[in-house]
Amino acid sequence: MKIALGQFAVGKIWEENLETVLGLMEKANQQNAELLVLPEGILARDIADPEIVLKSAQPLDGPFISAVIEKSRTMPMAVAMTVHTTTGEKRVHNNHLVIHKGKIIACYTKLHLYDAFNMQESANVEPGTEVPALVEIGGFKFGLMTCYDVRFPELARRLAADGADAFLLPAAWVRGLGKEAHWNILVTARALENTCYMIAVGECGERNIGASMVVDPLGVAILQAGEAPALVYANLSKERIEHARKILPVLKNRKFKTPELT
């Protein structure tokens, strides 16, 4: 299965970000990708305005998502991303969406909010309450995660136990002392300890590192982007998953129960 990772810098104006997204969709589809994964929070971003998520949030039937859905009707490729959506109150959800052939086929509301490193995502964002169901594309079962979720091995293990072949991780990973190393370590660990592919896509604006990457089920980074906007491609292999799980049967050998939400 051929996948595309569309790393870009999210700006303040949602219409401009939408044009970027539609352009990436067109290019990835022309290269016969079956899935395009985009970063976290792609409606709008302004590091000088922490409340931009409130100001820019749209409903799922708003103009941003509606335009992506309409574009997806013209191509066989699926697209995954996260956007901030309105809740009807003075807060928003950080929703990881998968859109395919004119429909939202998956919607996961981020569980673990980024209240760390002197930041507080929960000031404006309401956390989710459910483990996401797996979504199947091109014969692969994908588990959905979002950015800070990667620091919590329970979610990845639950998705793997549910039957995931791969994880999708849109992110906006903030720069900082040791943070790039954290990204590499955590993305690799979640793949290796669950013998799943990890597809991690980072926003690459003023504050965030980019560094989108694909790690295979044995912890091998088969693709990594730099700090600039990029559209890059990788191939997922069922045979590689089967090989990893044959020689490293950690999912069969585990002694702990499948994680549940508290």
From TrEMBL:
Q: Which family does it belong to?
A: Belongs to the carbon-nitrogen hydrolase superfamily. NIT1/NIT2 family.
**NCBIfam families per the UniProt record, alphabetical:** de_GSH_amidase
Q: What PANTHER family is this protein classified in? A: DEAMINATED GLUTATHIONE AMIDASE, NITRILASE-RELATED
Q: What is this protein called?
A: Amidohydrolase
* Species of provenance: Bartonella choladocola
Q: Which residue intervals define the domain CN hydrolase in the entry?
A: 1-238
Instruction: Print the organism lineage.
Output: Bacteria, Pseudomonadati, Pseudomonadota, Alphaproteobacteria, Hyphomicrobiales
Which superkingdom?
Bacteria
Q: What InterPro entries does the record tag this protein with?
A: C-N_Hydrolase, C-N_Hydrolase_sf, De_GSH_amidase, UPF0012_CS
